[in-house]
Design goal:
By secondary structure, the protein is mainly α. It has 3 domains: 127 residues, 3-Layer(aba) Sandwich (Rossmann fold); 119 residues, Serine Threonine Protein Phosphatase 5, Tetratricopeptide repeat, CATH 1.25.40.80; 177 residues, DNA Cyclobutane Dipyrimidine Photolyase, subunit A, domain 3. Helix content is 49%, strand content 6%. The protein has a 5-stranded parallel β-sheet, sandwiched between helices. Helix 13 packs across helix 14. The longest helix is centred in the middle third of the chain and has 23 residues. The radius of gyration is 24 Å and the shape is globular. GO terms for molecular function: deoxyribodipyrimidine photo-lyase activity; DNA binding; FAD binding. InterPro entries: Crypto/Photolyase_FAD-like_sf, Crypto/Photolyase_N_sf, Cryptochr/Photolyase_FAD-bd, Cryptochrome/DNA_photolyase_1, DNA_photolyase_1_CS_C, DNA_photolyase_N, Rossmann-like_a/b/a_fold. This is DNA photolyase FAD-binding protein.
Amino acid sequence: MGVALVWFRDDLRLDDHPALRAALDRGLVPVPVYIHAPDEEGAWAPGAASDAWRRRSLAALAEALAQRGSRLLMLHGPSLGTLQALAALTGAEAVLWNRRYEPHIEARDTRIKRQLRQAGLHAESFNGSLLFEPWEIETKQGDPYRVFTPFWKNALAQWRLRPLWEASARLPSPDQAGAPDGRHLDAIVPETRPDWDAGFWDEATPGEAGARARLQAFLAHGLEGYAQARDRMAVDGTSRLSAHLHFGEVSVQRVAAAVLAAEVPAPDRERFLAELGWREFAHHVMHHYPHVVDQDLDPRMADFRWARPLRTTLDAWERGRTGVPIIDAGMRQLWQTGWMHNRVRMIVASWVTKHLRLHWRHGARWFWDTLVDADLANNTQGWQWAAGTGADAAPYFRVFNPVSQAMKFDPQGEYIARWLPELAALPLPARFAPWEHPDLLRRLAPRYPRQPQVDLAQGRAAALEAFAALRAGREG
């Protein structure tokens, strides 16, 4: 039998895996290989939280392959040289993988594909991550979209569910191809220092089985009522599938098919599918405008007067010590769990880019290092949306009021009390804006900051003044 290297990347599953399926359909012995080469990812090498998740996901994939009679070869880069050496050792005739869409990785993979083909190997990539390839949806003029609603309307008109695929209970062994042993997981993604990520795993289980379990739990308990519950911070009203989707532990096709088949009110189903649509849109924008991972999509913001970042300001924000409870609760949740509720992400991002008037890159970098679901397209476009600099962005003059947002989406202050236990004794009005109740704050929460980093009204006014100055400069 012939041999194919199946190069696993951010597709750490077996079911609905196009590259693995292609190898098996062609009668080839698949040699599953993972190559750890973070230095090839440019300025956006994986952060610490991502690596913590990846380590457990790789272990789960290795176990799943072993149960099927196969095994995962875990190796270090460089990717091209490693693939070439492994192909020569095993006599592989093909190298198959599922595509990634980060600009630096796209360019690298293009070079790898070209050089493998020049060496006489069959090199082929597949869509294993998205409902649509980023280049498949375009305007009537043949241009990429910059606004979500028409993008998603067009996408829905073209959408056809693909057949799902289950991997066989037994897979051919790479030993048939003389594959080497590879390296131990500890040599690929070292274990984190004791207990650093312990809180991550209270509600999350990396790997394909964990992803399937989370999907089933969401279908059973979270999809009905999702349209309203998704914004409620204190309830388990979101799917919590973001990290599983980012690492490819479950296919987006499987998630979409399950949601479409669920017997729930149409608004709940449509609202969740639209969230998948935003994920598609972020990848669409990143593919067509690759500079957005570091620069504003809207060139008119290039001359905006951002504030100079002070380390003390960033430290207070990163540690959840801004003095604004909903901001600090979100930042504490992020640090302790590697995840933050989406509504809180928007409030936090608005605080950083509007009230503190810091460039979105500062926030995006911290999220990149601390989120287990850190995805380059979603992360940078989410921050640009909040900052008013990206595609279909909230206008810069839209400034979230963190107090009113907390009162609306955490009306009983439960989310705040959970992540800021030092404020749990405060009555509700004080829990949202403790600086307005100095006596209560001093008596019941003496260690919490007495004032916000910046006065809310003054911060908003300064942001609007800077935006007005930008407009005046353009029009002058």
